[in-house]
Each structure stands twice: as structure tokens, then as C-alpha cells.
Design brief:
The structure holds two protein chains of two kinds. In chain A, about 60% of the residues lie in helices and about 0% in strands. Chain A starts with 16 loop residues before the first helix and ends with a helix. Chain B has two domains: about 200 residues, no CATH class; about 30 residues. Chain B has eleven helices and two strands. A two-stranded antiparallel ribbon of chain B has the order 1-2. The longest helix of chain B has about 30 residues. The chains are: A mainly alpha, B mainly alpha. At the A-B interface, α5 and α6 of A face α8 of B.
Chain lengths: ~350, ~260
């Protein structure tokens, strides 16, 4: 038998970028389906346009760079599909066709490909695509919201008939404006009768996707939980009312952002401890900006915090294999200090 | 002044040392006033006028101004002309004066003007300095107008105030869009610039492939010549070039015979 000589690493995991992205797509399936049912054909068209634009612009960009078709197909890792889908899920269902198209092209070409492709982008493409849409088509993004076809299960009596609730503004914006909630918390959780982006209204579907990702070990369960809980706590603290906890985490795009966007590998810190701090800070920034601007800011908060990720990676490095852990280092330091003190004490006694 | 010198100064100002795309000077008015093409032209022409005047005056006074206080002296000269332009604009084109706002008085500290004063006018003759001011200013004007046109068409759907269509992308009117368009334009300009420069250089310094004895033989047909040379050169691109050159050489050989 001839010995096989090769460089390290000798054991490779079976995980590939394409596999993980496929998992993310599967996890997004419930939210996508529910969004399509709630908002109908317009939502389906929006999602299709967005994904198609993302994939086509990536392929065209590579063709312009004179890569061969065979290489492009071999290297195709589904990230642009995920970007397109995620972006579409954050857009209003009634957005005209050019909004998903242009934002998707911007997200893939400017945010991802110009910085060197998958894994080289400094901010999350889908989030930046949404921010682009928000700045570029402000009229659509601020007042283009419609209530879904399925009305609220238990509308609060004061606002009257279901279906007429919250046209022109999402539940979150009206709540931040100081109004009472027009739907119950259960409706907020299920997204029934709640106006919002295609994929953000049904928290149940997003949670199912999140659980799938945790089970498949694509993300760690505590990351989105920290983000969501901190946002709720800070929002309650700002409003001085613990009753604000549930409404503020159940409305808006917090679940979508926390589960699928803040946990993006490329734009989150490397180590677990750094991620905890990162998620907690995201929560603080989100709640504070929401209170200050009175609009939904999850996308802006994530974009803002993305820029701090290199800082996290510079200062909170992963422990080198074999080096003492942080706790061990602290222990030895404390022991040294104690010895010093006792030695000094002895000297004093003498 | 020789034609050579004229060509050098004009090309420097417009392309080689284009203040916006190559030197990245005067970025503040560039970003702020490229929202519309007309604003860009207005700002560019104002800067051009001040640049010519200040360059001429500084060039005239270049032996009188002591080296130690040259910067304050330059600033005073520039500020004089800026004040004149402000008064004239306020009187005759009030709409442009309004839209330029604080960026008009800020021309005083515009680094293009100070930069040209320091690096050119204070060392060169009057006519050269005036030309340098003219072409640098025109380079700035062209760049600003170009950026303004791009941003106006995409951001407000109009061109020089003329409404083209209703489709608007607000992003391009905002400051984020200004940075985006500016960055993209710099990248594109330098990409094209490098390409053109490479082409000129390779034209000037092309290595001539000497026809070998057997190729110079008039018995050989043109196609065979070209193939023989192509086979000798390695890469495909070189082969094509060589083919052309080879056939040209062969032709001239044939003519002589």
C-alpha cells in the first residue's frame, strides 16, 4: 500500500458553506410560506424578484471578472439566494417591483462582491440592502405597510373591525408613537392582523426556523435569546413599565433580525464570549434607537454594530490551544497577589 | 510658451492631476454640491475663476511674498477673490448663491486653490500659472458636473433641472449616495486611466520582434510567417500581436523586394 502524503488538516468536517446556507434556507421556509399566505401574490413576486436579482447579479459580476461558467457553478454557495430571500422578507409586501430588484443588486454587488465575495463582506448584505431600500425609497418604506389578509383573532375592541387596523403604519411605529396596541399579544406573536414586512410578522414561524437552526447547530441558542431579552428589558427600562417587555419584543423585525441576521457568521465576532457582549449591545442599541427615533431600527442597529465586529475580534481573541484559560489566568494572578500580601504581612509581623 | 508646455499643463489639470478623481482634493464641496448638475457647474466655475485670479496674483507676487508667511498671504489673496465672487453671485444669480450656501465662503480654505498656489503659482511664471488655474478649475468643474449629473438623474429623475421621469431613488440625493457615487467614480476613472496609460506606454516602448532570416525570405507566404512567429511566442495575447506585427513586417519586406 502506498502511503498517502498530504498537508494538514487531515480530518475535515462535512460542513460546507453551501450546506449551512441550505440549512438557513430551510429554516426560513416557514416564515416565507406564512408571509406568502398573509400577503398574497405581491409577496411571492417580491421574493421571487429579490432572489432572482441576487443570483443573477452575482453570476454577472463573476462573468465580468472573466471567471469561467464552470467555476461559477462549482463555487456557487447559495449565499446570494439567502441574501435575496432575507432581504425580501424585510421589505413591505406592497413594495413596487423595482424596490426588491435594486436593493438586491445593491446588497450583492456593492456590499458583498465588491468587497471580495462570500466571507469578505464587512456588513451583512441583506441588512444593508434593506437600509438602502429604506433610504432610497423612503415613501414606500415608511407608509407602504398593509394589514395581512387574515385579520386579528382578538382585536382590541376600541379600534373596531379587524382588517382596518394599522394601515400605513406598523404596530411597532404606532406603539412607539405612544398609542395603545390595537391587537392582542397573541396576534402579535402569530402576525394575524399585524402590518409589517413579509417575513417579520409571524414570530411563530421565525421561532420554528430558529429552533431548526439550533438543532442543526448552525447557530447557538443563546445569541438570539440574549439580543431579544436585552432589547425587551432596555425598552421596559426606558418606558419605566415592565408591561412593555412583550409588546416591544413581539412587534417589528426583532425576531427576524436576531435569529437570522445578527447571527450571520461573517459579520459577528469569533468567540462565544464576544458574541454574548455583541448581542447584548445590539439589544441596547436597538431599544435605545427605537425610543429615540420612533421607527423600526433593527436593521440600522445591526448595520451599526457590524462595524464594531473587527474591534471585538481584535480584543476578544479565541484562546490559543493549550494556553491557560481566562479563569485560570485570573486564579494564578489572585494567588500571586495573595502570596505577596501574606509575605508583606509576615514582614510586618517581624 | 511652447506647445509642449501647454499640453503638459492642460493634461495635468484635466486628467493627470484631476483634483477630484486623482488628487482627491476639495472633497467637501464635491460631496455637498453634486446633488444637481447645475450646482456642480456653478461651484466649479466659481472655483475656476478664483483659481485663475489667485494663481495670477500669487505668481506676480511670488518674489515679494516672504517664505515664512506665504500661507497667510495666499489666504488673504484667495479670500479677496472669494468675497468678490460672493458679492457678484448674490447680486446677479441669487438662486445659485442660495443653493451654494456655506460652501461658497468656504472656498477660501478649499485645498485645491491653496494647493495650486503652493505647488505651482508660487514657483512658475504668470501665464503658466493662469493656464494651470484654468485647466485645474475646468477639471474640477467637469468632475463636479459629471457627479452632479449622475446624482441628479438617479436621485431626482431630472437633468439640469429638466424633469426626465418620475422614478426617483432618494439614496442618491442623500449624503450616503454622494459618498457612494464619488467612490465609484474615482474607481472607474482610475481604472480607465490606468488602461489608457498602459496602452500608450506599450505603444511607445513596444519591443519589436526582429524577423529572422528564414522569415525574411520572400518565398514564404504571409500566413506562414505569422504562424511561425505565433508558434514562437508563448501566450495567446502576445501571439495575436505578433501575428499582426509579423504580417506587417513581411509586407514591408515584400515591398522592398
Amino acid at each position: 500500500m502506498k502511503p498517502l502524503v498530504s498537508d494538514s488538516p487531515h480530518i475535515r468536517g462535512k460542513r460546507t458553506t453551501r450546506g449551512i446556507m441550505l440549512d438557513v434556507l430551510i429554516a426560513l421556509l416557514p416564515a416565507t410560506v406564512v408571509g406568502c399566505i398573509y400577503f398574497g401574490g405581491a409577496a411571492v413576486a417580491s421574493i421571487a424578484i429579490s432572489i432572482a436579482a441576487a443570483v443573477v447579479s452575482e453570476v454577472v459580476f463573476r462573468l465580468i471578472k472573466r471567471e469561467k461558467i464552470k467555476d461559477i457553478l462549482a463555487k456557487f454557495d447559495l449565499t446570494s439566494v439567502v441574501t435575496g430571500l432575507l432581504l425580501a422578507l424585510t421589505l413591505p409586501p406592497q413594495a413596487p417591483w423595482y424596490v426588491p430588484l435594486l436593493s438586491s443588486v445593491f446588497a450583492v454587488v456593492v456590499v458583498k462582491m465588491l468587497f471580495g465575495g462570500t466571507g469578505k463582506n464587512i456588513v451583512n448584505p441583506a441588512i444593508t440592502g434593506r437600509v438602502f431600500a429604506f433610504i432610497a425609497f423612503q415613501s414606500v418604506m415608511v407608509s407602504g405597510w398593509i394589514a395581512p389578509s387574515i385579520g386579528a383573532i382578538s382585536p382590541v375592541a376600541a379600534t373596531g373591525a379587524s382588517g382596518a387596523v394599522s394601515t400605513g403604519a406598523t404596530e411597532l411605529t404606532s406603539m412607539l408613537g405612544g398609542n395603545e396596541l390595537s391587537v392582542s399579544l397573541l396576534d402579535l406573536f402569530l402576525g394575524t392582523g399585524v402590518a409589517g414586512s413579509i417575513g417579520e410578522t409571524c414570530k411563530l414561524a421565525l421561532l420554528i426556523g430558529g429552533v431548526y437552526l439550533v438543532v442543526r447547530r448552525v447557530i447557538k441558542w443563546e445569541y438570539p435569546v440574549i439580543y431579544i431579552v436585552v432589547t425587551g428589558l432596555v425598552a421596559s427600562a426606558i418606558g419605566k413599565d415592565i408591561g412593555l417587555f412583550l409588546p416591544s419584543i413581539l412587534s417589528g423585525g426583532l425576531f427576524l433580525g436576531a435569529i437570522f441576521m445578527a447571527t450571520d457568521y461573517v459579520t459577528s465576532p469569533h468567540t462565544r464570549a464576544a458574541n454574548w457582549i455583541y448581542m447584548a449591545l445590539l439589544g441596547v442599541v436597538t431599544a435605545a434607537l427605537r425610543a429615540a427615533t420612533k421607527i423600526e431600527v433593527v436593521s440600522f442597529a445591526i448595520l451599526l454594530m457590524n462595524f464594531f465586529v473587527p474591534l471585538f475580534n481584535a480584543y476578544l481573541r479565541p484562546r490559543v490551544f493549550g494556553a491557560p484559560s481566562f479563569a485560570a489566568k485570573l486564579k494564578s494572578k489572585l494567588a500571586a497577589a495573595r502570596e505577596k500580601r501574606s509575605a508583606a504581612g509576615k514582614e510586618d509581623a517581624q | 510658451m511652447t506647445g509642449q508646455r501647454f499640453k503638459q499643463i492642460s493634461l495635468d489639470g484635466l486628467l493627470r492631476n484631476n483634483p477630484t478623481f486623482r488628487l482627491v482634493l476639495g472633497t467637501c464641496p464635491t460631496l455637498a454640491l453634486s446633488t444637481a448638475a447645475f450646482n456642480g457647474i456653478g461651484m466649479g466655475l466659481a472655483v475656476t475663476f478664483i483659481l485663475i485670479c489667485s494663481n495670477v496674483l500669487i505668481s506676480l507676487l511670488r518674489k515679494a511674498i516672504p517664505d515664512a508667511v506665504r500661507i497667510p498671504a495666499f489666504v488673504i489673496i484667495i479670500a479677496t477673490f472669494v468675497t468678490i465672487v460672493r458679492m457678484v453671485l448674490d447680486k446677479f444669480i441669487p438662486s445659485l448663491y442660495e443653493s451654494m450656501g456655506v460652501y461658497l465662503p468656504l472656498i477660501v480654505v478649499n485645498c485645491i486653490i491653496l494647493g495650486r498656489a503652493e505647488s505651482f503659482a508660487s514657483k512658475n511664471k504668470v501665464l503658466d500659472s493662469a493656464l494651470d488655474g484654468l485647466f485645474t478649475g475646468l477639471g474640477f468643474t467637469c468632475a463636479l458636473t459629471l457627479l452632479g449629473m449622475i446624482r441628479e438623474v438617479l436621485g431626482s429623475g431630472s437633468l439640469f433641472g429638466l424633469q426626465l421621469w418620475d422614478f426617483k431613488i432618494g439614496f442618491f440625493s442623500s449624503s450616503a449616495g454622494a459618498f457612494f457615487v464619488y467612490g465609484m467614480s474615482i474607481a472607474l476613472f482610475n481604472h480607465i486611466y490606468a488602461k489608457v496609460e498602459n496602452k500608450i506606454r506599450s505603444k511607445n516602448f513596444a519591443v519589436r520582434i526582429m524577423p529572422s532570416p528564414d522569415l525574411a525570405d520572400p518565398q514564404n507566404t504571409l500566413a506562414e510567417d505569422a504562424e511561425a512567429i505565433a508558434a514562437r511566442t508563448q501566450s495567446g495575447a502576445d501571439a495575436v500581436e505578433a501575428k499582426e506585427r509579423g504580417s506587417a513586417d513581411a509586407k514591408s519586406n515584400g515591398g522592398e523586394d
